């Protein structure tokens, strides 16, 4: 199960989804799907449940959800913004 690093935070304001790295001060704008995926990286929600939620809420196929999920997760794991707590 994936969990956000303690050094990052995500936020939704009126028009944007924001990813903030508290350690470096870097700020990234997220799309709605990326924000939803990261909001579910709580260390308790399984990857399968995250994918299921994405498929239901955004009406996408499993293949589309997996593609978006895996691309985002691999990038964030490599930067240590998230980690797998299993």
Describe the structure.
By secondary structure, the chain is of the alpha+beta class. The chain has one domain (2-84): Outer Surface Protein A, domain 3 (Alpha-Beta Complex), CATH 3.90.930. The chain is 43% helix and 23% strand. It is built from three helices and five strands. The chain has helices at 32-39, 47-58, 62-78; strands at 2-4, 8-12, 17-21, 27-30, 82-84.
* Beta-strand percentage range: 15-25%
Structural class: alpha+beta
Q: What's the story with the biggest beta sheet? A: 3 strands, antiparallel
- SSE order: EEEEHHHE
Give the overall pLDDT as a whole number. Answer: 94
Number of helices: 3
What is the percent of helical residues? 40-55%
Query: Could you state the oligomeric state of the chains shown?
Result: single chain
CATH architecture: Alpha-Beta Complex
What fold name stands as the CATH topology?
Outer Surface Protein A, domain 3
Rg measurement, Å:
12 Å
Number of strands: 5
Terminal residue distance: 6 Å
CATH class: Alpha Beta
Outline the low-pLDDT stretches: none
Number of structural domains: 1
């Amino acid at each position: 199960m994936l969990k956000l690093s303690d050094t990052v935070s995500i936020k939704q304001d009126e028009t944007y989804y924001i990813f903030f790295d508290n350690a470096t001060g870097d700020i990234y704008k997220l799309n709605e799907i990326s924000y939803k995926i990261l909001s579910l990286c709580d260390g308790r929600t399984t990857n399968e449940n995250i994918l299921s939620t994405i498929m239901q809420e955004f009406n996408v196929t499993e293949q589309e959800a997996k593609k978006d999920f895996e691309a985002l997760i691999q990038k964030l794991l490599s930067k240590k913004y998230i980690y797998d707590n299993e």
